[in-house]
Amino acid sequence: MKFGIVGAITFFIDTGIFYTLKLTILSPKPVTSKVIAVLAATIVSYVLNREWSFRTRGGRRPHHEATLYFVISGIAVGMYSAPLWISRYLLHLQTPFTSRLVEEIADFTSGQIIGLLVGMAFRWWAFRKWVFPAEQPDGRAAPRDRISTP
């Protein structure tokens, strides 16, 4: 539930940045706009997931945890962006091949719905498995209250 709420918050961040960039300074580069938007949302997501969603899981040192989080999120950026890239450059759902309305619907569907679902499912699974596991790397149960270790 908490992961879903964090996802909703970061969806609005992602969507706001994506459309702000796509409709202004990066209008000819929608995939670049999407990558920048996902990166910004990922930073917010890390803080919220670490401090709230997975607070009682994990137990890794903060720098190891952050490294794993951002490596997995880097893979997810490709997963979030791939449907938009496919829609634009393989299916040619962009002007002049289609109308502006079709282009916008295709961009939203592929970038904000399909990409989001694929990336979020991967991140939820990977975060639970590797970043915030129920057990620590040495096999002990994760602490119930997170204590930062140097």
UniProtKB/TrEMBL annotation:
It is found in: Membrane. It comes from the Bacteria. Residues 2-132 form the GtrA/DPMS transmembrane domain. Keywords: Membrane, Transmembrane, Transmembrane helix. GO terms for cellular component: plasma membrane. InterPro entries: GtrA_CellWall_Glycosyl, GtrA_DPMS_TM. It is a multi-pass membrane protein. The keyword Acetylation does not apply. GO terms for biological process: polysaccharide biosynthetic process. Pfam families: GtrA_DPMS_TM (PF04138). Its main location: membrane. The chain crosses the membrane at residues 5-25, 31-48, 68-86, 106-126. Belongs to the GtrA family. This is Putative flippase GtrA (Transmembrane translocase of bactoprenol-linked glucose). It comes from Saccharopolyspora shandongensis. The lineage of its organism: Bacteria, Bacillati, Actinomycetota, Actinomycetes, Pseudonocardiales.
